[in-house]
């Protein structure tokens, strides 16, 4: 098991009993900066072996850490302060563990939204907390309209009795996006359920406290990249651009020169 341990952001006394015990009993603690963590560890008498785990080198070490977990090791991850993953090392590792079906959890967080974001493995670099959806459909639509084009990860609180209704409402506005339903955070039956809106897995347990994490809106440039050069060019013409401006826009979007776009348009001229 990987334990993603939340540490104090300032006062060393702001640390949970479970977090201390988790760090003491782990086989290894991955630290953003071992020297920084040494102060906290000394204060609480934590003598567990530590190892540096920096964000810039995370991709090189994620598989190695996953191998250690698969071999039966218990490993903890801490950042210099606060919650790992959110602007700190950890997201690459979480994604790797999800790919390989290995277990992980968050220890010591007091915020369900942030814990669910960490557990989801979605992009944590920019996220928006939406909270509970309004009861009335008109109010739901008005609220969700604000997030249709937002490219940040979205975090919703979902009552168990409204899961199917809420996921359907969100899908109707945002489309078929990747989503993650995180339930019973830090409890015995903690669960992380990956799916694509609005199709919840048939065997999903829909009980307990829940948080829904939804990927942000796709990058328009990524969608345009799926078009042929001519389709891309004609889209801008339909939007009201002149021939010259449409060609410049296509070249900019694709990162090529206007001459390359012009040549491709000539080759596909109807």
Strand proportion:
15-25%
Which value, in Å, is the CA radius of gyration? 23 Å
Uncertain stretches of 5 or more adjacent residues = none
Order of strands side by side in the largest beta sheet? 3-2-4-1-5
Structure, explained:
The structure is a single chain. The chain is α/β, with parallel strands linked by helices and 270 residues long. It contains eleven helices and ten strands. The strands form two sheets. A five-stranded parallel beta sheet has the order 3-2-4-1-5, with helices on both faces. Strands 6-7-10-8-9 form a five-stranded mixed beta sheet, with helices on one face. Helix 10 (243-254) packs across helix 11. The model has no long low-confidence stretch (mean pLDDT 92).
Could you outline the blueprint of secondary structure elements for this entry?
Blueprint lengths: L1 E4 L11 H9 L2 E4 L2 H11 L5 E3 L5 H13 L4 E4 L12 H10 L3 E4 L4 H9 L6 E5 L5 H9 L7 E6 L4 H12 L3 E6 L7 E6 L13 E5 L5 H5 L4 H10 L4 H12 L3 H10 L3
Parallel strand pairs: 1-4, 1-5, 2-3, 2-4, 6-7
Antiparallel strand pairs: 7-10, 8-9, 8-10
Helix pairs in contact: 3-4, 6-7, 9-10, 10-11
């Amino acid at each position: 098991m990987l334990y993603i341990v939340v540490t104090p952001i300032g006062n060393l006394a702001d640390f949970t009993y479970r977090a201390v015990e988790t760090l003491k009993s782990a086989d290894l603690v991955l630290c953003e900066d071992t020297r920084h963590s040494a102060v906290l560890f000394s204060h609480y008498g934590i003598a567990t072996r530590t190892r540096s785990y920096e964000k810039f080198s995370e991709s090189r070490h994620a598989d190695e850490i996953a191998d250690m977990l698969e071999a039966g090791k218990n490993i903890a991850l801490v950042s210099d302060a606060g919650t790992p993953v959110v602007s700190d090392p950890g997201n690459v590792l979480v994604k790797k563990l999800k790919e390989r079906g290995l277990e992980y959890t968050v220890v010591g967080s007091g915020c369900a939204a942030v814990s669910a974001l960490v557990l989801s493995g979605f992009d944590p670099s920019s996220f928006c907390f939406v909270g509970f959806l309004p009861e009335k459909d008109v109010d739901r639509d008005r609220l969700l309209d604000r997030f249709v084009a937002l490219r940040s990860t979205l975090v919703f609180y979902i009552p168990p009795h409204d899961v199917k209704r809420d996921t359907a409402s969100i899908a109707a506005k945002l489309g078929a996006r990747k989503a993650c339903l995180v339930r019973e955070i830090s409890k015995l039956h903690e669960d992380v359920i990956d799916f694509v809106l609005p199709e919840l897995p048939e065997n999903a347990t829909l009980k307990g406290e829940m948080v829904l994490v939804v990927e942000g809106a796709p990058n328009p440039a990524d969608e345009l990249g799926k078009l042929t050069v001519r389709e891309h060019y004609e889209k801008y013409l339909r939007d009201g651009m002149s021939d010259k401006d449409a060609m410049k826009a296509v070249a900019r979007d694709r990162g090529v020169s206007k001459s390359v776009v012009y040549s491709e348009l000539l080759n596909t001229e109807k």
